[in-house]
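My hope is that you will study the protein record below before we discuss the fold together.
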Amino acid sequence: MKKLLIYILVTLSAMAAFSAHGEPVSIKARLDSAHLIMGKQGMLRVEVVKNRGTSGYFPMFADGDNRPYVGLNGDTIELSRRFTSDTVELGSGRTQINYQIPLQAFDSGFYYLPPIQYVAGVDTVESNRVALKVLPVAAKADDEIEGYTSVADAPEGSWSDRIPNFLYYYWWLILLIILVVAAVVWGVIRYHRHGRILPGTKPQLPPYEAARQALDRLKSRQLWQQGQVEQYFVELTDILRTYISRRFDVSAPEMTTQQFLTEAAENPVLAPYAPELHRLLTLADLVKFARTQSLPDENTEAFRIVSDFVDTTRPAEKAEKESAADAADNAAKQPAPKQGKEAKS
């Protein structure tokens, strides 16, 4: 009983290991006929069963030999490199590939063809050996020879027969190399154009430029002129609070109006602007929350307060650079002093 239990456990372990590795590759070879007249063509049929998606090849056809055929049994028998194949799905992830390989013999006798090797993934399998009897040709020296075509000159089969063996079996490697080269070229071109390879976020505008552009967009949309007064004040106060947050490091967007006005009154930079900001934000709250209808002059005045505040508090270095640039432009526009007699007169 103990031996039987051990035998069952060993068998189950072997079955589990086999299942983990997957079903093996199998190969089977057969001839259309065991008899072949010398010089005539026969057909060697090889059936390969393997897991779907597993690539495979015949090493003897990928040996780099430039001859259009593979010689067997001391080159007495030739297998054409121009063979055809068809695929049959067996289900359960298994596939059968049927290869039709033209064969020709040039000396009479009885031969055993060597096993045909096939490589699929990490597995190498060999077919069974097949026997072939080559019959001599009963012909005289002056007889016309017809119907004898070398397997090297046999008509081409499928499109795959016209592809060199290296390309047929290693196309994936060539494709990988092409993709790597294309990626390197793309990276070099992008680096020279943008200074980086991977796409990055667009640089954020400085607070003044961002606020100025936002105000210009708001003005061009003419919201309050179209009756959208509430939306107008929502966007106007958002521009103001965002600018103050980025420019003065004050958490204005998170504050209530009262909290912000208290902070502005106590902040030495914002204190001079506190009265006008109080007037603006109070009007904005009335429009947004109390549904008060503001007057056109009030809408225009609110925009002026925010615009003047942004322009007045812009960074000094920026303002100095632009002032110098404006002065240079004005100087360039002044007429040049007259020379010679005209200047004296």
Remarks:
- The longest strand covers residues 94-105.
- The domain at 24-136+150-157 is CATH 2.60.40.10 (Immunoglobulin-like).
- The two ends are 135 Å apart (CA to CA).
- Residues 216 and 307 are 10 Å apart (CA to CA).
